């Protein structure tokens, strides 16, 4: 039985780990994930989804703040693993660790060489791509630059956002890994090099990218909103206070960018640099996330056509 070390952190990774465990073909001898973090307003310490799966299966868990040079890495190198599987782990793997096993492969949520980096799903949505996918690749020192073992794609629908695509791509990545891994280990599936000249990058989202610029087109703003839902969430300002927008829809309309051009009991439509945006799910400052109907029946009653969002 092939001995594996699995490394990952979010739900995407947990889905891949569960697939390996359910297959009963591989011996997961250790799981490495990010340290527990304080989350939410109450700053409650929360385990990663991968840690939850690992503990449910009585697997040893390692959580180094930084893998390179850590005592955890030194111990991992003594376990006798045949290979390492990573999926959205969140740290670079040192060359010493990669060289200590027969193979190390990663499940990456893009069609490489497009969108190397930590936020490929966000960028695929924000850029309005019509498809995305998963690549199984060999790990090398350079970020997401290894030879490709397998690829699979799926269409991006208008109703998709980061959350829905994470779920779809996690299943796609799990199945593609389980399909391709046996042949790769046996040596009958040879990895193919990427065309590095075609590489594009998707670095982690920066706070300034979350802010909506109403001068942009309605379609571009629609893509930005869904490309940040459910995290980190796009925002604008209303009366000088941050106003988050979780869901919106590009519609026809004309007016000054950021100006409310339609208000009813069920609709709030804001003009953009081209077209308009109908807000669907929002979160005013200091309030919970809510459907636009609830906002209009409560906190948004005082808004009028002609009022504006923005700085």
TrEMBL record:
InterPro entries: Fmt, Formyl_trans_C, Formyl_trans_C_sf, Formyl_transf_N, Formyl_transf_N_sf, Formyl_transferase-like_C_sf, GART_AS, Met-tRNA-FMT_C
MF terms (GO), sorted A to Z: methionyl-tRNA formyltransferase activity
Pfam families xrefs: Formyl_trans_C (PF02911), Formyl_trans_N (PF00551)
EC number of this enzyme: 2.1.2.9
Keyword DNA damage: no
Superkingdom of the organism of origin: Bacteria
Class of the enzyme per the UniProt entry, highest EC level: transferase
Keywords: Protein biosynthesis, Transferase
Catalytic activity: L-methionyl-tRNA(fMet) + (6R)-10-formyltetrahydrofolate = N-formyl-L-methionyl-tRNA(fMet) + (6S)-5,6,7,8-tetrahydrofolate + H(+)
Domain Formyl transferase C-terminal: 204-299
Residues in Formyl transferase N-terminal domain copies: 4-179
Binding site for (6S)-5,6,7,8-tetrahydrofolate: 110-113
The family this protein is said to belong to: Belongs to the Fmt family.
Its job: Attaches a formyl group to the free amino group of methionyl-tRNA(fMet). The formyl group appears to play a dual role in the initiator identity of N-formylmethionyl-tRNA by promoting its recognition by IF2 and preventing the misappropriation of this tRNA by the elongation apparatus.
The protein's name in its UniProt record: Methionyl-tRNA formyltransferase
Gene for this chain: fmt
């Amino acid at each position: 039985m092939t001995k594996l070390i699995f490394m990952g952190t979010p739900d995407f990774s947990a889905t891949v780990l569960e697939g390996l465990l359910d297959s009963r073909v591989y011996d997961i001898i250790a799981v490495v994930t990010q340290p527990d973090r304080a989350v939410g307003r109450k700053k409650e310490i929360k385990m990663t989804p991968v840690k939850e799966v690992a503990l449910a299966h009585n697997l040893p868990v390692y959580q180094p703040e930084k893998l390179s040079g850590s005592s955890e890495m030194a111990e991992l190198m003594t376990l006798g693993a045949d290979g390492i599987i990573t999926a959205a782990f969140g740290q670079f793997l040192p060359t010493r660790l990669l060289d200590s096993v027969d193979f190390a492969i990663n499940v990456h949520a893009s069609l490489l060489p497009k969108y190397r980096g930590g936020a490929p799903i966000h960028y695929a949505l924000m850029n309005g791509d019509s498809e995305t996918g998963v690549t199984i690749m060999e790990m090398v020192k350079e970020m997401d630059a290894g030879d490709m073992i397998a690829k699979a794609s799926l269409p991006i629908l208008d109703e998709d956002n980061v959350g829905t695509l994470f779920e779809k791509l996690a299943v796609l990545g799990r199945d593609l890994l389980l399909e391709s891994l046996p042949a790769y280990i046996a040596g009958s599936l040879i990895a193919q090099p990427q065309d590095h000249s075609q590489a594009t990058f998707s670095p982690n989202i920066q706070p300034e990218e979350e802010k909506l610029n109403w001068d942009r087109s309605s379609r571009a703003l629609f893509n930005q909103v869904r490309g940040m839902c459910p995290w980190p969430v796009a925002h604008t300002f209303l009366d000088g206070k941050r106003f988050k927008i979780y869901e919106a829809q590009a519609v026809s309309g004309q007016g000054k960018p950021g100006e409310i051009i339609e208000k009813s009991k069920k609709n709030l439509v804001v003009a953009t640099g081209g077209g308009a945006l109908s807000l669907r799910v929002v979160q005013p400052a200091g309030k919970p996330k809510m459907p636009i109907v609830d906002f209009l029946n409560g906190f948004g009653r005082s808004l009028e056509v002609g009022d504006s969002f923005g700085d």
